[in-house]
Inverse folding.
């Protein structure tokens, strides 16, 4: 026996569909008794059921014609129902042909197997009706919302606070409200990785057309501007590109990650990948290698819509340089350069921030004297290495003898400048000698040093997309969200 199912959904397709389906199910349940039945009677009953199945399919095809241009999801579900009804019609035809091979009376046992197959097919049709009708209802609700909902920030906040989750009402409210936002000079990039796992990966891939526009609109409302770049299935190179793009000052990363990483669609980006400064010299067996590096710093925010676990801290001695002290060293270097430039050399002083250390924590100070050509630094190579290059990590560090011999040779006719240079080196040694014990992260927070640490927002725990929709800037950062203001 087959049950009619929920009548409330049947009329969603059409009133004719509802009436025919109810008649069809009742007729099927009454048509095949366990008594012997004449073949011609069975064929008439099968023909009647087949005709009703054809009417049902025709009603579904009409509904597809009404929705095809407006809703892909509903069209697909209705098409699936049409296909199931087509299979049912074919099985009735096959049953009728089987009956034609017989004459006179037929026992129930002779038709039992065919009836079981038909019952299974009818139940599949019934299940597909529920899916298709539910899809039509959702589509109707979306159309109603577009016509009737007056969207305001209060509307969106109320929907977010309702606890009803990610609904079409929220989708419509967010996307409509975000339409009026301006584009700004300090651009916004949103990078959405498909490199997530498990449930959320399934949600994102299957529901991208529903989730991503709503998610993007929510971020735009929080930051108060339209996104300049939105990348689906974003790669590691996409991240590097927007880091180097001066027109992009705000970046949001979505996907799997940790305190120090983001799983892009094609690779895992870790924090140490960003600790290469523009023009930084990395020495290896080939000699100096100049890396392209990343700018320091961007003015905006890096928002991590990932999990935030994995932070590990250990105490470590670091060089701590106050801003005023560093400014004094740079001023002294400029003073020396006033005389050194006449000899086609330039003194450079650079500090390397210790990854994972608090602001001001420095790993070393590099002092170098480089050759200039027409006032510009010549790129060092095997034939024209730096005149002087030394990394000071503590007070005990003393420049190599060959480094000082180069300086002695160049400045042999300018003793005051040589003395000034030696005093400068001593000042650097004094500065690096001021070391204190500070908590240092084993793996620095992702985004440093390109973004100021206080401008990197996110979580330090497990998260999910609901967290990102409620609080775009992360834990305890609601005050930054322009939607709430």
């Amino acid at each position: 026996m087959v049950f009619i199912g929920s009548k409330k959904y049947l009329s969603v397709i059409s009133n004719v569909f509802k009436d025919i389906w109810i008649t069809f199910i009742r007729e099927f349940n009454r048509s095949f008794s366990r008594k012997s039945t004449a073949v011609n009677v069975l064929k008439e009953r099968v023909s009647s059921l087949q005709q009703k199945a054809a009417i049902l399919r025709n009603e579904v095809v009409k509904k597809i014609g009404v929705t095809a241009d407006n809703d892909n999801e509903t069209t697909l579900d209705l098409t699936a129902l049409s296909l199931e009804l087509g299979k049912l019609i074919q099985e009735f035809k096959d049953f009728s042909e089987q009956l034609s091979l017989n004459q006179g009376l037929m026992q129930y046992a002779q038709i039992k197997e065919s009836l079981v197959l038909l019952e299974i097919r009818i139940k599949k049709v019934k299940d597909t009706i529920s899916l298709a009708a539910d899809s039509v209802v959702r589509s109707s609700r979306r159309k109603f919302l577009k016509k009737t909902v007056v969207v305001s920030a209060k509307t969106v906040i109320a929907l977010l606070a309702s606890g009803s989750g990610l609904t079409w009402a929220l989708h419509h409210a967010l996307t409509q409200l975000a339409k009026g936002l301006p584009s700004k000079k300090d651009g916004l990039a949103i990078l959405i990785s498909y490199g997530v796992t498990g449930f959320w990966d399934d949600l994102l891939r299957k529901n991208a057309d529903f989730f991503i526009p709503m998610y993007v609109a929510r971020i735009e409302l929080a930051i108060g501007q339209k996104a300049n770049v939105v990348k689906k299935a974003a790669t590691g190179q996409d991240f590097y590109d927007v880091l180097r793009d001066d027109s992009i000052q705000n970046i949001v990363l979505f996907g799997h990650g940790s305190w120090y990483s983001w799983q892009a669609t094609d690779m895992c980006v870790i924090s140490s990948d960003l600790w290469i400064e523009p023009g930084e010299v990395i020495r290896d067996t080939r000699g100096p290698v100049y890396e392209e590096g990343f700018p320091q710093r961007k003015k905006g925010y890096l928002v991590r819509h990932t999990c935030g676990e994995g932070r590990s801290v250990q105490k470590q001695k670091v060089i701590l340089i106050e801003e005023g002290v560093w400014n004094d060293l740079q001023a002294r270097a400029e003073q020396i350069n006033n005389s050194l430039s006449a000899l086609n050399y330039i003194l450079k002083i650079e500090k390397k921030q210790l990854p994972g250390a608090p602001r001001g924590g420095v790993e070393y100070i590099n002092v170098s004297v480089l050759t200039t050509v027409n006032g510009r630094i010549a790129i060092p190579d095997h034939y024209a290495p730096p005149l002087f290059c030394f990394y000071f990590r503590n007070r005990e560090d003393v420049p190599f003898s060959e480094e000082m011999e180069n300086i002695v040779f160049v400045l042999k006719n300018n003793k005051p400048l040589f003395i000034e240079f030696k005093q400068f080196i001593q000042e650097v040694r004094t500065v690096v000698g001021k070391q204190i014990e500070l908590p240092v992260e084993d793996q620095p927070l992702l985004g440093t040093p390109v973004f100021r640490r206080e401008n990197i927002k996110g979580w330090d725990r497990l998260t999910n997309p609901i967290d990102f929709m409620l609080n775009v800037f992360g834990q305890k950062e609601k005050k930054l969200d322009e939607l709430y203001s």
User: Anything to note?
Assistant: The chain has three domains: 7-148, 154-311+443-480, 314-438.
